[in-house]
Amino acid sequence: MKDATAPGRTDFEATRERFHLPPGQIYLDGNSLGPLPKGAEAMMRRTLFTEWGEMVIGGWNRADWMGLPDRLGDRIGALIGAEPGHVTVGDTLSIRVFQALAAAVAMTDRKVVLSDSGNFPSDLYMAQGFLRNFRSDMTLRVVEPDAVDEALTEDVGVLMLTQVDYRTGRRHDMAALTARAHQLGIVTIWDLAHSAGAFEVDLAGAAADFAVGCTYKYLNGGPGAPAFIYVAPRHADTAHTVLNGWLGHADPFAFEPEYRPAPGIARMRVGTPAILQMRVLEAALDCWEGVSLADLRARSVALSQQFIGAVEARCPGLELASPRDPEMRGSQVSFRFAEGYGAMQALIARGVVGDFRAPDIMRFGIAPLYVTEADIDGAVAHLEQVLSDREYLRPEFRARARVT
Ligand SMILES: *Cc1c(COP(=O)(O)O)cnc(C)c1O
Question: Residue 214 and residue 69: Cα distance in Å, rounded?
Answer without folding.
Answer: 13
